[in-house]
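Notes to self after the Tuesday call (sharing in case useful).
The group wants a holo model before anyone commits to mutagenesis around the pocket. I volunteered. Ligand is manganese (III) ion. Logging inputs and output together so the record is complete.
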Amino acid sequence: MPYQLTELDYTYDALEPHIDARTMEIHHSKHHSGYTAKLNAAVEGSDLDGTPMDSLLPNLDMGNSALRNNAGGYYNHDLFWKVISPNNRGSLSGELKDAIDTSFGSLEAFQDAFSAAAAGQFGSGWAWLCVHKGGSLKVCSTPNQDCPLMPNVGCGGTPILGLDVWEHAYYLNYQNRRPDYINAFFNIINWNEVARRFAQGK
Ligand code: MN3
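Result:
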């Protein structure tokens, strides 16, 4: 079992009231756990077994739907758990703040663009903030478990912030009110982690 379920460094109820404990528990212990098991099954006995995500995803055979869906599901959720945290760990500052100002004009303008991508993704998928070499930032959305690290998906680059907009991520608490869930997300961003990923990917 080369791919392990990500351990959270906070409790299931730590993100309340923005994300409720029951949603977190089901999302992590059932949904992400399912993607992890199916990814392990999809690579078992092949050359890909244990390949790190940052080299597996850019070289993915997009026609292999079991691998595409489950490698994406595994990577996307691993990122998601790490870029959220109780009480907005850290704050937007330094080089990442400068890059957001340069690419979008302001934090507010970035939030508007990201919210529009998240709200406008029809059906299941993700909204992303990605960094390209040189430090420019782009926002996009992707369907299902696709991810901008995969070949020719979304805005490309390296994802540094992602929001799961599948209904399983919010339906218990927010029902059909995806915009309320998106607004709440901005209260639980782990800016320290986003800045770390920015510095690594730029
Ligand atoms: Mn999910």
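Two things stood out.
Residues 27, 31, 77, 164, 166, 168-169 surround manganese (III) ion (CB under 6 Å).
The mean pLDDT is 96.
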